[in-house]
């Protein structure tokens, strides 16, 4: 009798492990954006050029999306709106100068980006990103997004209600 119970228990654990690994993750899509498209994060050719805000306005950003900044001899700072307007920050929220910076949009709202190199922000190397309140599934990339470097990337997120449902179902079935 004990060996019969152990056989059921082993089957239960095997089935449970399989179902948890295949069903307890819900696929959510996020996008990865190359900031500025093929040009990257570079100082605009003319003063006060708004190419980055124009680029940002052609894209929809959701929580979980990733911005990729590619640049040479520059930096990326996330700052407050006041610091954005002044093109100066002594204590940025985020700083990177490695030439290939990924920044994950982790909340809805506005994000303010500037260059940390003197004079670059004033020439237009700055950008405001608006992240949407609700995380909506991405649609097919438009030609602007494709040219701008948006790439669809799968992301997984655990689903606790599914796990609890599975435990309850199989627990009742085998007990």
UniProtKB/TrEMBL annotation:
CDD domains named among the record's database cross-references: OsENODL1_like (cd11019)
Single GO molecular function: electron transfer activity
Subcellular location: Cell membrane
Pfam families in UniProt: Cu_bind_like (PF02298)
Domain Phytocyanin: 31-133
Record GO cellular component, one term: plasma membrane
Keywords: Cell membrane, Disulfide bond, Glycoprotein, GPI-anchor, Lipoprotein, Membrane, Signal
Taxonomic superkingdom: Eukaryota
Topological relation to the membrane, as annotated: Lipid-anchor; GPI-anchor
Signal peptide: 1-24
Membrane found in the keyword field: yes
Cell membrane is among the record's keywords: yes
Similarity section: Belongs to the early nodulin-like (ENODL) family.
Record's protein name: Phytocyanin domain-containing protein
Species per Swiss-Prot/TrEMBL record: Actinidia rufa
Taxonomic classification: Eukaryota, Viridiplantae, Streptophyta, Embryophyta, Tracheophyta
């Amino acid at each position: 009798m004990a060996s019969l119970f152990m056989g059921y228990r082993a089957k239960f654990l095997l089935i449970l492990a399989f179902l948890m690994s295949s069903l307890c993750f819900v696929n959510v899509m996020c996008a990865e954006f190359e900031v500025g498209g093929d040009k990257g994060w570079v100082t605009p050719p003319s003063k006060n050029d708004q190419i980055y805000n124009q680029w940002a306005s052609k894209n929809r950003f959701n929580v979980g999306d990733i911005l990729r900044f590619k640049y040479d001899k520059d930096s990326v700072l996330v700052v407050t709106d006041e610091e954005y307007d002044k093109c100066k920050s002594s204590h940025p929220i985020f700083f990177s100068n490695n030439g290939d910076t990924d920044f994950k949009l982790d909340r809805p709202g506005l994000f303010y980006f500037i260059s940390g190199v003197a004079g670059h922000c004033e020439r237009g190397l700055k950008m405001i990103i608006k992240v949407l309140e609700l995380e909506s599934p991405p649609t097919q990339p438009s030609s602007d997004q494709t040219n701008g470097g948006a790439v669809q990337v799968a992301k997984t997120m655990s689903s606790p209600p599914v796990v609890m449902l599975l435990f309850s179902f199989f627990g009742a079935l085998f007990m």
